[in-house]
Amino acid sequence: MANQENDFYQKLRLKIEKWLETKEGKTHKYSEYLMAVPDLFHLIVRLMLDKGISVQDKVKLGLAITYFVSPIDLIPEAIVG
Q1: Does the pLDDT of residue 71 top 90, yes or no?
Q2: Distance, CA of 46 to CA of 5 (rounded, Å)
Q3: 4, 15, 33, 65 - which has most CB atoms within 10 Å?
Q4: Cα distance between residue 81 and residue 79, in whole Å
Q5: What sign does the dihedral 26-27-28-33 (CA atoms) show?
């Protein structure tokens, strides 16, 4: 499992790095934050696999992953601020 995690992690980082080298990537307003995405995802996955983390906290992490990757904005910033 660890090799699959690292493969996905490395592939995701590589894709983002390549995109950041493009004209669109260099001028995108969030480009400086995008490299944190694979690191955050990797951290959450590692925490989900950690036996020292409680089931309740793993549920919260699962919800965080779902919210992070969901195309539906459940809490619109335009309304909440």
Answers
A1: no
A2: 9
A3: 65
A4: 6
A5: positive
